[in-house]
Amino acid sequence: MTSLARAIAAGSAAVGLALALSACVPESQTAPAPTASRSVTPSSTPTPTASAAPAQSLPADCSGAYSDAMRQKLAAQSLPLNDAGVTLLSTEQAPLLELLQTAPTLRCTWGVPGPSGIATNITILTPDQVQTVRSTLTAAGFGCETSGDATICRTSQRGVSLDDKPYERGEIQAVQGDLWVSSAWVNVSPDGYTQDILSTVGK
Description:
The protein is an alpha+beta fold. It has one domain (about 5-200). The chain is about 25% helix and about 25% strand. The chain contains five helices and six strands, in the order H-H-H-E-E-H-E-E-E-E-H. A six-stranded antiparallel beta sheet has the order 1-2-6-5-4-3, with helices on both faces. The model is unreliable at about 1-30 and about 40-55 (pLDDT under 50).
């Protein structure tokens, strides 16, 4: 197990339920209210950037990763793009977090620190890395379906916060050729969000 995987596993065991976005319990229990930020130091949060020349080009910035219609839909929900306070990771799967540290990737977030938000990484993978993503999602119990030439996998959980407010959070992971779109969301999951990225970036 790598140092990153050990750190993630240890952190999840010790403080995962104390972190707003990591706290998910059955509806019959309570947990801290989820927010779009986590109480972690910058050094413990992967902040990958595009650093290699991929076979497929990534957008220069997040404005090129979405259609005009999707950007307008997100703006209408009062979800600003790339607020510095949003530190939500796009996945909680340790093998996938390791990939995000090495593969060319673009991170985009929507929302502010608070009860709702989205974190997305748009990443270019090698064939071996594609297999790692697929096997990790299968082992983690994600539900997957085929949409065109993409495989889209989802998981979600519902819970109740300590102040008795219900919440829902989850992940959407999609692979289309060498393109991987990894997203985590809390209390907001716009229809067609992942498909919009796939069609915009994967043209």
